[in-house]
Structure formats: C-alpha cells, structure tokens
Amino acid sequence: MKKGMMFFSMIALLILAACGSDQASGESEDASLELVEDGKLTFAMTGQYPPLNYKKDGELTGFEVEIGNEIAERIGLEPNPVTNPWETIIQGLKVNKYDAIIGSMTATEERDKQVDFTEPYYLSGAQIFVAEGNTEITSPEDLRDKTVGVIQASTWKDMAEELSDDVKSYPTDVNALQDLEIGRIDAVITDKIVGLDARNEKGLAIDTTAELLNEDRISVATKEGDTLLVEKINEAIQSMVEDGTYEEISMKWFDENVLETE
C-alpha cells in the first residue's frame, strides 16, 4: 500500500515539475522581449500626420494608433502609443524610449542598418489621381498629352516629367488636388495616402487610377536584433489580415485596403 502511494506521489511530482518547466519557459520568452515597460507595448509616432496618427481632443488617434493597439492586444500586451519628433524617432528607439515605431516609416536599406523591420502594415508610394468619373486616364502611358499637377521640388515632379510634357507645380498637394477636382488639370501624382486623405477627409471628388508608380513598404521598426518582437508583430499583423480586422480598420480610415496596391 505504501509503495503504491509513493508511486503516485512521484508521478504527481513529475507532472508538477513539467508544468513548472513550461511556465518558466513561457515567462522566459515574455521576459526576453525586454520591454520598456513591463506588460506594455510602447510604440512611437509623431502624432502630426492625419489620418495616420494625430491628436484629437488631446488623445492620439488615427489608422496607425488603431493598428498599433490591435497588435499589442494580440501579443497580450497593453497598448501604449507615444509621440516623438520625426527627426529623432530612430534615436529614441535606440536609447529605449519605446519598443517600436509605428509611424509611417518606409523600410529602406539605409534605415535597415539601424533598426529591424517587420513585414509592411500598409503600402504607399506615388499614385496617379484623376477627377471623379474620369475614364480617359487608366495607366501612366495615358498621361503623355495631359496636364499633370505635382508639388514643387518633389520626387513626384521628376516622375511626372518622365510621363508628360505638361507638368504644373504647386506649393502643396492639396492645391494640386483642388485644381484637379475642378478640371484645371488632368491628373495629379502624389503620395497615395495624401490623396486618399484629401478624398475621404476633405471631401474632394477624386479617384485613384492604375497601379502605384513606386512602392513604399511601411513597416514597424524595432531595435536592431529584437527578433522575437519582430516575429510576434508579424504574427499579429498576419492574424489581423486573415480574420478581416485589418481590412475593417483600413476601410474605416481610407475606404480601401491599403495593403493592396491596385
């Protein structure tokens, strides 16, 4: 009888030891995230780039705030969005002011030398905009004999001059898009997100057309070598895409899925 009791006691101890080992392993993985603040995902943005990130009634809001909040919750952390000037946003990440940057940062080779990037959470780049109902311009080749508006001294201007012999410069993108709406010019080349904001938030009657002329992969930046956090963020983004949450957030802010290029 005593031998039987001892046998079952040993089994119970082995089970408890195994459970304890698994729990310790889980705690170790969470600890290895090395978060700025335990239990929170602190992510930075400028707070000055509507509709992506901006302050309304003193609170941070926008597409990227909602994306960042959703990412944090799917990792099992409390979201903690903060602001930092763009000029020092990478430096702030390096000195552990925050865990990540979710602030419209394009993943480039130069930046990749300083930080690690996740897969993109939205795609942007140069986009052709036309007046609502325009069916004459459906591709870059259709701009050859058209008047194209661009912001002065921009990369968009260089692109436009390769596609059209009649390029008109403007002090701001909004000025160009307003002239497009009333028919003073035939098309505008500007950043996709800028144009979508003018259409959806400012109410301009304009449409996108054709594919992006170039593609900017906007990604979450983390400290260099923080592979576990990159992995967890990628998994969160993928699950958002798969269950439709990503498209729901994107449609709310842009009236289209900004992970799709056409």
Briefly say what this structure is.
By secondary structure, the protein is α/β, with parallel strands linked by helices. It has helices at residues 2-31, 63-75, 89-94, 109-112, 155-163, 173-181, 192-200, 227-243, 245-254; strands at 40-45, 48-49, 53-56, 59-61, 78-83, 100-101, 115-124, 126-131, 147-151, 166-170, 187-191, 206-209, 216-223.
Draw up the topology in text.
Blueprint: H1 2-31, E1 40-45, E2 48-49, E3 53-56, E4 59-61, H2 63-75, E5 78-83, H3 89-94, E6 100-101, H4 109-112, E7 115-124, E8 126-131, E9 147-151, H5 155-163, E10 166-170, H6 173-181, E11 187-191, H7 192-200, E12 206-209, E13 216-223, H8 227-243, H9 245-254
Parallel strand pairs: 1-5, 1-6, 9-10, 9-11
Antiparallel strand pairs: 2-3, 3-4, 6-13, 7-13, 8-11, 8-12
